[in-house]
Every structure is written in C-alpha cells, then in structure tokens.
Design a protein that fits this description.
Largest sheet: 6 strands, parallel
Shape: globular
Distance between the termini: 10 Å
Oligomer: single chain
Strand order of the largest sheet: 3-4-2-1-5-6
Strand content: 15-25%
Number of helices: 8
Number of strands: 6
Length: 229
C-alpha cells in the first residue's frame, strides 16, 4: 500500500490492564506509533496517517486532556530535534487538524515540527498526525475555503469538483487516498477519521489494543489488503 492510516485505539484500556495511569498508557501508545512508522517504512509505505487526538477528546477530563497536550508538546519537540526520528528517517510531518484549539505552546511545537521537517534534504515518507481533528471539521473548513474562493472570483462555481474539494482538505492535494486503514482495540467504526480519504480503503479491525500491536498483526492486515486488491 502507498498510504496506510491507523486509528490508535486502546491506550486507556491498556493502562487499566497494566495498572498504570492513563498518561503512561498514552506514552506507551506513542512508543508503538514510532515502532509502526518503522514497520511502514521498511515496507516502502510513503504516506502514513495516525489519529492522535480527536476534537471530541477535548470533552475528556481536564486532567487527561492536560496530560495529552503535555505529551504532544514534548513529542513534537522530540521529533523535530536534530537527529530525531524525522531527520534520521527522512519523514516530512504534517499536524493535521484545527490547531487553533490546543494551547499556544502545543501550537508552537507543532509549527516548529512542520517547519523543520519541511526543510529536510531527504524526504522518504510523509506522516500526517491528525491532532485536534475530525473529518467533519475538515470537510466544513474545505467547503468554506472553496466558497471563499468563488466569492473572490478565484474559482467559478463549475470549478468546485471532487478534485477541488480533495485539494482543499487539510491533508492537501499531494496526499493520495488511503489504501489500508487499521483500527485496534476491537472497535469497528471510523470515528470521524479521514472520511473522504478512506472512501475506497481496505478496512482492517483488530481486537488488539494499540500498545500491544505486533508486527505480525500488521503483516496480516497488509496481506489482507493485498488479497483484496
């Protein structure tokens, strides 16, 4: 597959089973994300998308949201540093979502990460971190952008096509449709994730909690996708 997307579900249940706090569960989830990125790159996957934080997640307890914002800020700085994951692997990173909602410190860390990775000399892959994101908000923002372009005379009404809408999405025109979507933890729903981009994707639902995902689990999903092509 050229583009693989992940709904990284199960960090909180993992924490409960391991008798650790939720923040520790989310930290283990981040570690698994880094591991999965390596698996994808070894397979030659050029585009990876992960559902890191939904806009709906802001409804969780203030303590958990604060911990998640702190984790995001720390990891964005870690990923952006010299000889960090992005530079070592040649990964251009996009933080995809409504970035007016997180705290300013998280916004700054996200901007720094995107700026630093865009300037890398070597680009082997692109990672979309869907953070403060829902597909519903993304769709509304894209339609609003096209409406504004028509009002300003930059587009004619007839120019508003599926191709134009795809280009106005937060993942932008250079991101191909998702080929394979993997969701962990036994849930069998999309949860407002990349609804336009996964229109023709092969969906793979796993009972495994995200931090417990193994390379064998992932290989089975890839083989299932290849059989269905």
């Amino acid at each position: 597959p050229e583009h693989v997307a992940f709904v990284m579900d199960g960090n909180r249940r993992y924490a409960e089973r391991q008798h650790v706090d939720k923040a520790t569960g989310h930290t283990h989830g981040y570690g698994k994300m880094v591991e999965v990125i390596h698996w994808c790159m070894e397979l030659g996957v050029r585009h990876i998308s992960v559902y890191a934080f939904s806009i709906d997640n802001f409804r969780r307890s203030p303590e958990e949201v604060t911990a998640l914002m702190r984790l995001a800020e720390d990891k964005y700085f870690e990923l952006a540093r010299d000889n960090g994951l992005a530079e070592r692997e040649g990964i251009c990173m996009h933080i995809v979502g409504d970035l007016t909602l997180p705290p300013p410190s998280v916004q700054g860390a996200a901007a720094r990460l995107m700026r630093n990775t865009a300037a890398l000399r070597r680009h082997r892959a692109t990672l979309n971190v869907c953070f403060s994101y829902t597909a519903s908000e993304e769709s509304v923002a894209a339609v609003s952008e096209l409406q504004a372009a028509v009002r300003q005379g930059l587009l004619q009404p007839g120019d508003v096509t599926p191709v134009a809408l795809h280009g106005a999405l937060r993942t932008r025109h250079d991101c191909p449709p998702v080929d394979l979507l993997v969701r962990t933890s036994g849930e069998t729903r999309l949860s407002d994730f990349l609804l336009w981009q996964v229109a023709h994707a092969h969906l793979c639902y796993l009972p495994t909690l995200w931090p417990d995902l193994s390379v064998l689990d992932f290989a089975r999903c890839v083989l299932s996708y290849q059989r269905q092509r």
